[in-house]
Amino acid sequence: MYLEHFGFATFPFHLTPDTEMFLGLAPHYEAIQTVLGALDMGEGLIKITGEVGSGKTMICRVIIRHIAEHVQLVFLPNPALSGEQLRATVANELGITQVEPNTLVNHIQHKLLALAKQGKQVVVLVDEAQALSDEALEVLRLFGNLETEQQKLLQIVLLGQPELDQRLTQHHLRQLRQRITFSAYLRGLSLDEVVAYVDNRINKVGGNTGLFTLHHKKALWRASLGYPRLINQICHKSLVLACRDQTKVINNSQLYRAIHDTYDSCKPKFKSPWLWGWS
After folding, report:
1. Is 94 helix (H, G, I), strand (E, B) or coil?
2. How far apart (Å, rounded) are the C-alpha atoms in residues 101 and 103?
3. Which residues touch 125 (CB under 8 Å, ≥6 apart)?
4. Scanning 44, 67, 179, 237, which has its CA 20 to 30 A from the CA of 12?
5. Among candidates 101, 90, 224, 189, which has minimal Cα distance to 144?
6. What angle do CA 53, 260, 275 make, to 5 degrees?
7. CA 279, CA 277: separation in Å to the nearest integer?
8. For residue 22, what is the DSSP state?
9. How far apart are CA 20 and CA 201, in angstroms?
10. What is the spatial distance between Cα 167 and Cα 177, in angstroms, rounded to a whole number?
11. What distance in Å separates the CA atoms of residue 279 and residue 225, rounded to the nearest whole number?
């Protein structure tokens, strides 16, 4: 679309999380270190929450890439499951098949004990955990009870939107809430982090970081609230408009139109950054 126009090797602002584009900015780095550190210490239940578009799925993929070799991972990217379906999914990921549903938990426990004797650590990683039903959350809590005298047989990492935190305040989920040993919240990026984020992505595809001026990056920060998904959407649309207009750098009008075309962004009233009241 605009690769040749700007001399990019690939699209710098894809919405699909690409770990090759990852930059270890403070909120993301802290979340990753929280998870990896807690897993290394053998903690049972870890929670990471953040707003829509804050980078949870990217973090999830980075964790998967950096997880230790002795860890057997059970990854649940789509957790809209009943309790029975969740048990069956975990069993299947552990290689347990063709057993009666009423014996499934016993088979899972025996498998976990066998893996522990082999020095294996089993981790269930749940993305979009706010979609878990109460029944599924209770299944995870009971899985978290599986342990020997020395260690947890199953560690659980939940990544979800703030709705997960809201649900965990409910009285009937207090047992699960009390088992969360480490947690982190993904805040929006600061101005300096947004500048570094945009420049990193443009650099990695062979582009010119001067495509967006500092004024534009400040406007981008305000409009996106520092959330990577909105940053990507606005930057991508700005580049499309610049290519269509045959300009080699982004101008105020293009950025203004891109922001107004992005649904959840904070929209300025004027087309000139110094009139947006965002100094």
Report:
1. coil
2. 5
3. 60, 63, 64, 73, 74, 75, 76, 157, 159
4. 67
5. 90
6. 110
7. 6
8. -
9. 10
10. 10
11. 14
Distance CA 122, CA 112 (A): 7
Q: Which pair of tokens denotes residue 193?
A: 């982090």
- What one-letter code names the amino acid at 6? F
CB atoms within 10 A of CB 117: 9
* Residue whose entry in the numeric block shows the structure tokens 């500092």: 214
Local confidence pLDDT in tens for the 279 residues of the chain: 788 888 999 999 988 888 999 999 999 999 999 999 999 998 889 999 999 999 999 999 999 998 888 999 999 988 888 888 899 999 999 999 888 878 888 999 999 999 999 999 999 999 999 999 999 999 999 988 888 878 889 999 999 999 999 999 999 999 999 999 999 999 999 999 999 999 999 999 999 999 999 999 999 999 999 999 999 999 999 999 999 999 999 999 999 999 999 987 787 766 665 555 444
How many other β-carbons are positioned within 10 Å of the β-carbon of residue 46? 24
Rounded to 10°, the helix 134-144/83-93 angle is 50
Query: What gap in Å lies between CA 80 and CA 66, rounded to an integer?
Result: 26
